[in-house]
Amino acid sequence: NAGVTQTPKFRVLKTGQSMTLLCAQDMNHEYMYWYRQDPGMGLRLIHYSVGEGTTAKGEVPDGYNVSRLKKQNFLLGLESAAPSQTSVYFCASSYSTQNTGELFFGEGSRLTVL
Amino acid sequence: DAKTTQPNSMESNEEEPVHLPCNHSTISGTDYIHWYRQLPSQGPEYVIHGLTSNVNNRMASLAIAEDRKSSTLILHRATLRDAAVYYCILHQAGTALIFGKGTTLSVSS
After folding, report:
1. Which of A40, A98, A103 sits opposite B93 (nearest CB)?
2. Which residues on chain B place their C-beta less than 8 Å from a C-beta of chain A?
3. What are the tens digits of pLDDT across the range A90-106?
4. What is the number of alpha carbons within 13 Å of residue B79 lying toward its C-beta?
5. H or E segment at B47?
6. Which of B99, B105, B78, B68 minimizes the C-alpha distance to B3?
7. B20: nearest Cα among B97, B90, B87
């Protein structure tokens, strides 16, 4: 099993460009999450999904859109990238959000917006 | 959301036990206490979680105060590989995990 796979791992964008980060999991998990992590900070939740076709906002959703068309994939989109979105993005998945639900994280995608 | 308070950093020597504290004075009866850690340049990984009773697994032990207002993650014998940021998180069922800044643990040989 690959677990949680994020693509791309690195990307440089110019301000105003758009891009999509792909997260794929092969554990048949219902729940998927996108977090961002800035230097010296903890992770902040952007959006999450509790199942195919559903999405919900997290702590810092502005400037991002997400889609969960297939259970195994969770896409994070930036329509018009800004320098403030320079960060490391982590995707995670879990079987459930119940109290015993362990999160499995990807290795991260480092995005730089110039 | 109930919040946790952790020291910014701690230091340890290799092969010694490490006690990482976490205060959560506003914890509710249905909050589970989760611990994750993040090794350098990696995504976080699950360590342990508990509700009321102390918990042990292959990675660590979790000691929960009787009033549940604090907890301690115990690494029984620290190794260099245990150097990481450790996050203490309160989790309500049906919600996503919200991370704080965690404790940066340094381990010296």
Report:
1. A98
2. 30, 32, 36, 41-46, 49, 51, 85, 87, 91-102
3. 999 998 766 556 899 99
4. 4
5. strand B45-50
6. B99
7. B87
3-state secondary structure of A79: coil
Distance CA A95, CA A18 (A): 31
Q: Are A89 and A45 in contact (CB under 8 A)?
A: no
Mean pLDDT of chain A: 93
- Using a CB–CB cutoff of 8 Å, tell me whether A90 touches chain B: yes
What would the pLDDT profile of A104-114 be if each residue is shown by its tens digit? Answer: 999 999 999 99
Contact A33 B96 (CB under 8 A): yes
The 3-state DSSP class for residue B80 equals helix
Neighbours of B79 (CB within 10 A): 12
Burial of B89 (0-12, 13-18, 19+ CB in 10 A): buried
Residue B75 CB-density burial (10 A; 0-12 exposed, 13-18 middle, 19+ buried): buried
How far apart CA B1 and CA A92 sit, in angstroms, is 21
- Angle at B97 (CA atoms; ends B95, B98), nearest 5 degrees: 115
Question: How confident is residue A1, by pLDDT bands cut at 50, 70 and 90?
Answer: low
C-alpha A3/C-alpha B14 separation (Å) is: 31
> What is the CA angle A10-A68-A111, rounded to 5?
15
Tell me what the mean pLDDT of segment A24-29 comes to: 95
Q: Which of chain B's residues have a Cβ under 8 Å away from the Cβ of A97?
A: 93-96
The H or E element containing residue B89 is strand B84-91
